[in-house]
Amino acid sequence: MAIAPAPTAPRGGEPMPDDGPAGDGAATPGRAVRLLRRLLTFQTLLVGGSVVVVGYLALVPLGYLFHDTFLSGGGFSFDAFSRAYGGDSQSGSMMLNSLWFAFGSAALALLLGTALAYVQVRTDTPFKGLFFAASLVPLIIPGILYATSWIFLGDPTIGLLNTLVFKPLFGASPINIFSVWGMIWVQGLHLAPVAFLLMVAAFRAMDPSLEESAAMSGAGRGTILWRITLPLVRPAMISGALLMFVQSLESFEVPGLLGLQNGTYVFTSRIYFVLRAYPIDYGAAGAYAIGLLAIAAAGVLLSAWLQRSSRNFQTVTGKAFRPRPVELGRARPLAGAAVIGYFLLTVVLPIAVLIYASLLKYYAVPSRKAIKTMSLNNYREVLHTPLAFTALKNSLVLGVGAATVVMLLTAIVSWVVLRTKAPGRRLLDMLAFTPIVIPGLVLGLALSFVYLRSSLPIYGTLLILLISYCTRYLPYGMRYSSAAMAQISPELEESAAVSGASWFQTFRRVVLPLMSSGFLAGWVYILVVSFRELSSTILLYSPGKEVLSVLIWEQFENGQFTTLAALGVCMVVILVLLVSVAYRLGARFGLQGDSTN
Amino acid sequence: MRPGALTAGLLAAGLVLVGCGSSPASSGGSGKAASDPYAPYASLTGAQRTQKLLADAKSEGGVLDLYTSNTDIQDLVDGFKKAYPGVKVNAFRANSETVLQRVLQEDQAGKPQNDVVDTNDSELRSMDKQHVLTPYDGPSKAGLRPSATTFGGWTAERFNAFVVGWNTDVIPQGQPPKTFADLADPKWKGKLSLEVGDWDWYASMHTYLTDNQHMSAADVDALFKKIVANSKVTKGHTVQGELLSAGQFGVALSVYSHTIDKAAKKGAPVAWRPTVQPVILRPNGVGLMAHARHPAAALLWTDWVLSAGQQAIAKSLRIPAATTVKGYTDPIPAGTTTYNVPESAETDSAKWNAAYDALLRGVAKTG
């Protein structure tokens, strides 16, 4: 990536005063040289370069989107909006469905993720090892497989929960996954890891002395949790809620599989509708995306407003602290049971269905006949897919690359947004959030448009996929980074600067290590989800540059559901191994001794 | 951090973007009246043609770049490799909309990256309209059904058949639907399934009922409304096929015959015969790129796919375009009414897409 080429810069040299007075009275050439030198410092290049790269990544698809929406008819017009929202499109009621679905899913995911993170980081609960899997597995399973396995669990007639549990025990089939509640349930469980990863990082970076003072002053446990602990992790909660809300608004996997069967249409079914037609009405698709963009922008502004008194959340200060686990006492078995219950629901049940399906020739409700046909053939088929290893290698390169690039960029950019008074920093924050609402196909088109016309050899290489992933996951990186940054008090950076550290030294040796929990959480998130990115990948990859999601798509299109299940199981195994290695390495780099499991 | 740097940075990013946006020379490879790269082979036939094509394909680099949405392409690639080991096939696989977008984007930038395209009829028709294809006029054309060679810039190589399929455990023996109109009966309530994106199937069925069965448009609309009231809507043919096998519903109205046949081969309790008429046929075809980088390889591939390659197509349970394929029997029983996706489905695609969407959402009902 184009991070500042810095050979001319004095590397980590003299401390850089932020707003030194301009040299007065000097001769003009001398002044110009000094100004130039000051502009060419490593800090300016690095920070400026990051801002430019982030701005560029976000603006390319956004520019393409705006162009298609407002200028597609020749001149500037709002026609696309009336095509998109007018007539019998029912976009109003669909938007209401969407908002309800997104709000419910985000709330459920936030509640589950936060509770789980609190129990994991701050209590002496048993079974801490399970959290790791519970936080990752739902993230790894592609949405389409996760939703389908829930159909096989929660369908009123063939769902295993109904046929194997409720029917024999209670004589009724109460679970119906094809309802708004079912959609919220599946989406909420699928998203909870986003909240969990964010909140774990936030709880780790929390100074418990405030809670202790509250306890000394006679506050009960509930009061402390409600009045002290939760308000302190508000930046992370807001970030998580925002990400999950917008992501639920723009996703179509769960609503497509679960909502359509009972006639619940959501807003994104409109985008799907225009993108499947030919000729594709990109104007209308853009108009829908801009509708989502307005909601997302309002969300970013709201979150900035909610965090306006930044000092309140800065728990990582000059004072030493070590989060101490709360002793659960008699509640310990209860917490243990809750952990196991959650683990069963989010990991064991869906994975068990996938493993079961992966051993069959076609999906059938368990019976003696079905069990007789079980074999490992699907796994054999996965291993013999000609491109399996190329795809795995490319996915790894891209996942690790995108995660690293995005987290480094956003660490710097969130520093700009939170630490400086630079004009336009709010805009930058919002800009970096926009890719979340750009449909993958539009992102793909924008990138192929630009790089087919660029003389740089990027089109047809892995690099164009890397650019696409970096764009797509920019919003996530920003939220993870800024939530972590918001907890760090600037006094630490100030003391580093006073002690003579350069900006880069401070950033590298003070800021980054302090935000390492959040950094790692974001890194893991991006690594994992980039393995399943398809909507822009499918337009941009080239033969020989296949990735795993393309293979998954192919099995899916080909109707090989059981082979797909086997591929999903393999992906879970590979990524769990990979991420546990990352955590091992991360524990060395980050806050020492906080690895509680 | 200097406050100005941020603004300057964003400005720079904007400039880069504008720079990129203003540069496109959208002349496109298509507009130029370039010489026909396939002309040198036009008069050749038989072994002479094959030898010349093979020799030239090797001197072009021995590769063929293929864009395809055919999910059984590997069978063809393997077969081709066996026939011509000297030519390596690079296949870009994506859904048909993506294949179309990629071809058009590359064409507009004047950088076509493929030699041959293999995808669905509507996408091929769109490409043909943009003049990115060159009609195939080789010797293999003679062995094809007449309905495969009427498309101008491209040639049908196989047909997908939309059929009504059912689960034989859920629908008892002897009780599967007999006619399409049967499905409006309230006894099917909750047992049928439609796919959310199948507007081309809807367009074909609708046109067939009005044009061939001489029903009034209002009667057809009423029939469809009743059928929709009996139906669950799913997304994606794969999920639909899998849920049908699993018995989540009894009947799928617009599945591909090969999806059912493949599942039945594995032992799933699904069937589509005796057929509910008509069977809707949708051609999938092969097109030669007008600006191919490897024209000899492209012709070699097309010659092969439309002749010997038809066997691989039959083996993957698709319906070949050739009139006779050795050792192959047509999965569609003799005497079945078949109906090709009508031209109007393509020309009025926006209308049909919107009508099907409104039908499923029940908006058409209240109006």
Automatic annotation (TrEMBL), chain A:
Residue ranges of the TM segments: 44-66, 99-119, 131-153, 173-203, 224-246, 285-306, 334-359, 396-418, 430-452, 458-475, 510-531, 561-583
Subcellular location, principal: membrane
Bilayer topology annotation: Multi-pass membrane protein
Domain of life: Bacteria
Keywords in alphabetical order: Cell inner membrane, Cell membrane, Membrane, Transmembrane, Transmembrane helix, Transport
Subcellular location: Cell inner membrane; Cell membrane
GO cellular component: a single term: plasma membrane
One GO BP: transmembrane transport
Stretches the record annotates as Disordered: 1-27
InterPro entries: MetI-like, MetI-like_sf
ABC transmembrane type-1 domain: residues covered: 95-303, 392-582
Family the UniProt entry places it in: Belongs to the binding-protein-dependent transport system permease family.
Name listed for the protein in its UniProt record: Iron(III) transport system permease protein
Protein species of origin: Actinacidiphila alni
From TrEMBL, chain B:
Keyword annotations: Signal
InterPro entries: SBP
Membrane-spanning intervals of the chain: none
Annotated signal sequence range: 1-25
Keyword Cell division annotated: no
Name of the protein this chain belongs to: Iron(III) transport system substrate-binding protein
Naturally occurring in which organism (per UniProt): Actinacidiphila alni
